Amino acid sequence: MKFNKIELEVKNALSSLPIKKRGILYIAGNIFNFGLKKNEVHLFCNNLLNYAQKKIGSSGGIVVPTATLNLIKSKKIFDKKKTQSFTMGVFSEFIRKHKKSSRSDHPLWSFSGIGKNVKKVLHKVSYSAYGEESVFERLLNYKTYFICLGEPNTAIGMIHYVENLIGVPYRYNKEFYIKVKSKNRTIFKYTLLGVRFKSKNMIGDGNKEITNQLKKMGTFKCVRLRKGVIYFCEYKKIIKNLKIIFRKNPRIWLKNKNQKQQTYYKD
Q1: How many angstroms separate the CA atoms of 238 and 46, rounded?
Q2: How far apart are CA 57 and CA 51, in angstroms?
Q3: Where are the alpha helices (DSSP H) in the chain?
Q4: How many of the other CB atoms lie within 10 Å of CB of 241?
Q5: Residues 102, 120: Cα–Cα separation, whole Å
Q6: Cα–Cα distance between 255 and 267 in angstroms, integer?
Q7: pLDDT in tens, 208-259
Q8: Which pTM does this prediction carry?
Q9: For residue range 88-127, what is the model confidence (pLDDT) as tens digits?
Q10: Torsion of CA 67, 69, 70, 71, to 10 degrees
């Protein structure tokens, strides 16, 4: 069988990852981290999906983030069949638009996916984006693997789940009412999202220190692909290590680790 160059690169990268059949792959990040040309993007996405499905088998599933946090400051209506994700990457949009794809109905932090177990993960999720019965929590009930397309610091959404679980001083739960298309009508849907305090005194480091700690703990297996790197780990492992990191230092995301919460109100 003759392979094209991209197909062979994707096949070799995924074949080196210890993925078991019937598992769920949570794939995040941006494929442009690999230095793809514009005319290679669709082919890359097709091959990534095809070989990912071969690794997990017919009983497995693939989940991607399709969040729409831009709707917070917008009058747009969330339609889970049509609304595009926001800054979630090309592959996430590729999966969202797939004819066999399902999508969760959280209007700010949705996920899309393909596969046998995916509908169970995405169906009737919590109104809390990071709380109990959220997709982040449900993925713990399966043999889930995390695949990050490029450096992880901008793609580890599960950080927010652990922040909510452990408790951090710079984030709180805020309620929103988002316009949502429900069948043939538009309704306002109540939803909860963990957000950061708005303060010029609070400056984060873009998850860099958290990512460095995860790497030092041996969380990831790394596979080079063209100009970039694929980071891989078991989902339960990264959640476990994030809990350790945040228990040790709940202010690790802040550049000023000694800053107290009361200063967030003194702009």
Answers
A1: 27
A2: 10
A3: 5-15, 41-56, 90-96, 118-122, 135-138, 158-166, 208-216, 235-248
A4: 20
A5: 10
A6: 17
A7: 999 999 999 999 999 999 999 999 999 999 999 999 999 999 999 998 877 7
A8: 0.94
A9: 999 999 999 999 999 999 999 999 999 988 999 999 999 9
A10: 100
Structure tokens at 74: 């917008």
Picking from 24, 28, 13, 26, the residue whose alpha carbon sits closest to that of residue 153 is 28
State how far the Cα of 177 lies from the Cα of 189, in Å rounded to an integer. 5
Strand partners, 145: 25, 234
What is the C-alpha end-to-end distance of the chain, expressed in Å?
Answer: 64
Q: How many residues does the chain have?
A: 267
> Largest Cα–Cα distance in the chain?
65
Task: Report the alpha-carbon distance of residue 34 to residue 168 in Å, rounded.
Answer: 34
Mapped onto helix, strand or coil, the DSSP state of residue 120 is helix
CA angle 71, 72, 78 (to 5 degrees): 35
